[in-house]
Amino acid sequence: MAATPKSAHGETTAFAGLASRDVHVIGAAFCEGQNLAGADAAPAALRAAGLAPALAKLGWTVHDPGDLDFDARYRERGLGASLPLDKHHESMERYREWEDSGMAVNFATWAHDHGAQHGSGADGDAAVGESSARAPPQIVNGPLIGCGLELVHEAVARAAALGRFALTLGGDHSVAAGSVSALCEAYPRLGVIWIDAHADANTPSTSPSLHYHGMPAAHLLGWFERQPAGFDWLRPGVLPESSLAYIGLRDIDPDEAKLLRASKAHVYTMRDVDKHGIGRVVEMALEAVDPHRNGPLHLSLDVDAVDPHFAPGTGTMVRGGLTYREIHYIAEEMALTGRLVGMDLVEVNPHLEPSQAGGGAARAMHNEDPEAAHVSPTVNLGVELILSALGKTIMHDRYH
Ligand SMILES: NC(=[NH2+])NCCC[C@H](N)C(=O)O
Questions:
Q1: Is the interface score ipTM higher than 0.90?
Q2: In this structure, which residue's CA is closest to atom 10 in ligand 1?
Q3: Is 108 in the pocket of ligand 1 (CB under 6 A)?
Q4: Record's family (predicted)?
Q5: Is residue 17 domain-resident?
Q6: 42-75: per-residue pLDDT in tens?
Q7: What is the pLDDT of residue 372?
Q8: Which of 59, 229, 333, 339 has the fewest beta carbons under 10 Å from its own?
Q9: Which residues of the chain have pLDDT under 50?
Q10: Residue 249 is assigned to a structural domain of this protein
Q11: Pocket lining: 207 vs ligand 1, CB cutoff 6 Å
């Protein structure tokens, strides 16, 4: 059966799931949405940890054209002057300094209070139609991010048009602006389950950091006061509020919380997980975004939703997260619907893995996939979660 997402998955038609077991890997080595580099190393690290052979073993045909070439796109669009791109990133030494300081505030705030190494990013960032006289707060590196994420959007749209499962490997959570917008267009009734410690629902006006990785949900939902330069390809509101459910939230900024409370987005915080248990929370979230239980679904998984005990290799860790089993359960339930069409795995930062910091190599457990190289705990968890979302269960190692 040919894949024709638009006509086949219209408003009223029940979606029967992808017709074939083809997964398209979109390597989005992109970390411009935050002030720390390293998340851009994740796609390569996930591949090195054996992602493709493990997916093949599970019964999937893997299409991986390699990482998107962001630099080429920047140059094409005349943004070459912004290269090298790491000018707004803080150093790993500064990150360690923040950790040693006791981490009373998040890294972005700490870096700001301790003389950020990078500029405000405001230069040349004027929003569309805005005069510089009363310039609104500017997303750090805004136009460059818009340009880069358009490439993600295009690649995900292509994967969806081919009827393939769109697996986006971040990168920071910025990439979801590209992937989710593309999938919402390909699958009009798309329900999005967003697993995260943070809501990423700040607008440029509410954001304490002006980092875009804290904003993609707000942008998709249409909450930005104005369209920032470079984002013409993103239709604000492309994701209806009621089609979004969060699980795992525990670090929300005050004005961000106000926006969420006033919206129709479905929020399941860690407290809901405590109260109802993960089984019930997943059921409620799926019911909320897809009341008929017959529409296409997307999983946007930020590894910082997981407790730092299990996922230490990420930039914005927050205590009190999902356990190893809870996060796997979520991924497994998504696979069991048979209607998952895409997944983002974001915010894995191999540079922050304990093994890289001198803590010794992560040890393999006896029952782990021998084909997966044991690079580091968070990278390995990332591979495992992708496998769970694509059908691996305790009783079945083939998607059936
Ligand atoms: N994708 C992430 N890790 N987001 C963290 C966002 C942190 C904070 N709420 C901010 O807006 O900056």
A1: yes
A2: 214
A3: yes
A4: Belongs to the arginase family.
A5: no
A6: 999 999 999 999 999 999 999 999 999 999 999 9
A7: 46
A8: 59
A9: 1-10, 119-133, 356-362, 371-373
A10: yes
A11: yes
Contact 298, 180 (CB under 8 A): yes
Beta-strand ranges (E) seen in the chain are 22-28, 61-63, 165-170, 191-195, 244-249, 266-269, 297-302, 340-346
Is 103 inside any structural domain? Answer: no
| Distance from C-alpha of 128 to C-alpha of 224, rounded to nearest angstrom | 12
Query: Kindly report the CA angle at 110 between 109 and 112, in degrees rounded to 5?
Result: 65
- Structural domain count of the chain: 1
Q: What domain range includes position 194?
A: 22-71+134-389
pLDDT of the residue at 40: 95
Strand order in the sheet with 340-346: 61-63, 22-28, 165-170, 340-346, 297-302, 191-195, 244-249, 266-269
Q: 265: domain CATH number?
A: 3.40.800.10
Q: What is the DSSP string of 61-84?
A: EEE---B--HHHHHHHTT-GGG-S
**So what's the pLDDT on residue 109?**
84
The verdict on residue 9 lying in a domain is no
Residue 347 Cβ contacting ligand 1 at under 6 Å = yes
**How far apart are the CA of 326 and the centre of ligand 1, in A?**
22
